[in-house]
């Protein structure tokens, strides 16, 4: 990543990856601010890669915690947030459901990113030199076959995939490698020693592009809706709510439950449904639910062409 691609925002947050920024100009000489995108994780994380799928000119603002990502969006420090919501192998990112409910935000778009893990090291490092491999525990777990064929390498848990690349480049340790994305290698000037370490090729993460509710532009061709709701504490209430969704002609594709903080044994349910019309509503849930919040309606993401 060249110095020209790193800018300081007024708040002091580092912005990465923008080809256009408020201080820059288009070919016509007119200033064109980049979309400011908050992600959780270090620059080069898979969320960074997903953000650039939404907008290749985005200015990326990395935050350590997901709660900080949503707070920055809520306070107007960024225009949007890009968050992982579900991995096809590891399952849902449960904290993000809670944050979508807590803040006055909505999902505007979704994307599928194929997750490709790479063995990354300090340039010039040889495979025979590597003794330790750092990465996020989920990434390590998705590369078990690689470690089985390289018993001389010890898998070491780290807080972030891209963060592990940042760490090894700071240390310049040729006995250490990391597992992360291709973009992480590019961001920190590291070298990919082996690509596609993942055990399962069908490894995808769904990412949401989230905006403040007032800023969302409703997709006219939306065919999917995400909803959060809680039900009355009486027999059959959940079944009644799901039947109401069924009667609307929706196709339930996902359901998740999360405990209500401070109210033991009470739950909020999160559902994704395919819809036949962008105008379909959730009013039918009202008579069966204590709370209903539409989290967004958007066009369902398709698998990337390269992986079909």
How are the SSEs placed, and which strands pair?
Blueprint: E1 6-8, E2 14-16, E3 36-40, H1 46-54, E4 59-63, H2 66-74, E5 80-87, E6 91-92, H3 94-102, E7 105-114, E8 118-121, E9 132-135, H4 137-141, H5 144-149, E10 154-157, H6 161-171, E11 176-180, H7 182-188, E12 191-194, E13 204-212, E14 224-231, H8 237-247, E15 251-259, E16 267-274, E17 289-298
Parallel strand pairs: 3-4, 3-5, 9-10, 9-11
Antiparallel strand pairs: 1-2, 5-6, 5-13, 7-13, 8-11, 8-12, 14-16, 14-17, 15-16
Keywords:
single chain; 3 domains; D-Maltodextrin-Binding Protein, domain 2; 33% strand; Alpha-Beta Plaits; 308 residues; alpha+beta
Protein model, in words:
The protein has 308 residues and is of the alpha+beta class. The chain has three domains: 3-112 and 207-214, Periplasmic binding protein-like II (D-Maltodextrin-Binding Protein, domain 2); 118-194, D-Maltodextrin-Binding Protein, domain 2, CATH 3.40.190.10; 224-298, ACT domain (Alpha-Beta Plaits). It has helices at residues 46-54, 66-74, 94-102, 137-141, 144-149, 161-171, 182-188, 237-247, and strands at 6-8, 14-16, 36-40, 59-63, 80-87, 91-92, 105-114, 118-121, 132-135, 154-157, 176-180, 191-194, 204-212, 224-231, 251-259, 267-274, 289-298. The strands form four sheets. Strands 3, 4, 5, 6, 7 and 13 form a six-stranded mixed sheet that branches. A five-stranded mixed sheet has the order 10-9-11-8-12. The radius of gyration is 21 Å and the shape is elongated.
Concise description?
The chain has 308 residues and is of the alpha+beta class. It is 22% helix and 33% strand. Strands 3, 4, 5, 6, 7 and 13 form a six-stranded mixed beta sheet that branches. Strands 10-9-11-8-12 form a five-stranded mixed beta sheet. Strands 15-16-14-17 form a four-stranded antiparallel beta sheet.
């Amino acid at each position: 990543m060249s110095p020209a691609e790193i800018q300081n925002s007024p708040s002091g947050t580092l912005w990465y990856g923008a080809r256009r920024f408020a201080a820059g100009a288009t070919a016509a000489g007119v200033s064109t601010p980049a979309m400011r995108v908050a992600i959780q994780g270090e620059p080069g994380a898979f969320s960074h890669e997903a953000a650039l799928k939404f907008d290749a000119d985005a200015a990326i603002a990395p935050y350590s915690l997901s709660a900080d990502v949503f707070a920055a969006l809520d306070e107007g420090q960024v225009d949007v947030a890009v968050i992982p919501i579900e991995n096809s192998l590891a399952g849902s990112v449960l904290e993000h459901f809670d944050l979508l409910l807590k803040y006055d935000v909505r999902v505007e778009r979704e994307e599928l990113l194929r997750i490709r893990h790479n063995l990354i090291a300090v340039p010039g490092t040889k495979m025979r030199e590597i003794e330790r491999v750092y990465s996020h525990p989920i990434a390590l777990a998705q590369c078990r076959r690689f470690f089985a064929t390289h018993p001389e390498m010890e898998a070491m848990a780290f807080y972030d995939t891209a963060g592990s690349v940042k760490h090894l480049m700071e240390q310049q340790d040729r006995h250490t490698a990391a597992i992360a994305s291709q973009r992480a290698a590019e961001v920190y000037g590291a070298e990919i020693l082996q690509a596609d370490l993942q055990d399962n090729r069908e490894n995808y993460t769904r990412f949401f592009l989230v905006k403040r509710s007032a800023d969302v532009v409703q997709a006219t061709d939306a065919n999917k809706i995400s909803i959060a709701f809680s039900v009355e504490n009486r027999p059959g209430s959940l079944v009644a709510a799901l039947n109401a969704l069924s009667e609307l002609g929706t196709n339930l594709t996902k359901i998740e439950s999360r405990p209500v903080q401070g109210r033991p044994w009470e739950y909020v349910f999160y559902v994704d449904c395919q819809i036949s019309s962008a105008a379909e509503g959730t009013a039918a849930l009202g008579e069966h639910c204590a709370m209903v919040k539409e989290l967004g309606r958007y066009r369902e993401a398709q698998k990337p062409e390269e992986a079909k």
